[in-house]
């Protein structure tokens, strides 16, 4: 029997010995601490922040949607890590709504600037390194915050915590990137982190089996 399924089977009827408070407070605290740590780490690279991005309403909505989806993902991850907690009523709708705003505004912002994704005169690889490094740092901090709760639903915790890190790191690096093209952001901001997550996830399981 696989490890995850064994945990789910053993903890299916687990009940807390005392009432567990709402995970909203630890979610807010963890979100602030991780976002601050990633922002300070990004500042160490000495990047140029392209404030003209922020002047765009669609870019503001993009950041708002990405931040909202990241926060909701962390909320769902922490809630899934607590035994005996029922699903939060507002967390998943907030995640879906924020993700829709993020994707929609990202597409519109890219189209409104009429910017070529491959001919903007920038080194695309300069976006990959800080994004992956920020995501790695965010993953360590988030896993520490979530796994210390001894989660009984590791699949949901793993998925939502990883989504939180991908969205947060990608959004922060976008502030320091002159490109706003949809394909550029998808290929050079979010895909590297997603690829690293997939490789790390499956290679880690293979090493444990080996």
Automatic annotation (TrEMBL):
Keyword presence, Chaperone: no
Lineage: Bacteria, Pseudomonadati, Bdellovibrionota, Oligoflexia, Oligoflexales
Domain of life (superkingdom): Bacteria
Name recorded for this polypeptide: DUF1109 domain-containing protein
Transmembrane as UniProt keyword: yes
TM stretches of this protein: 28-52, 58-78, 90-108, 128-147, 159-181, 187-204
Pfam families reported in the protein's UniProt record: NrsF (PF06532)
Alphabetical keyword list: Membrane, Transmembrane, Transmembrane helix
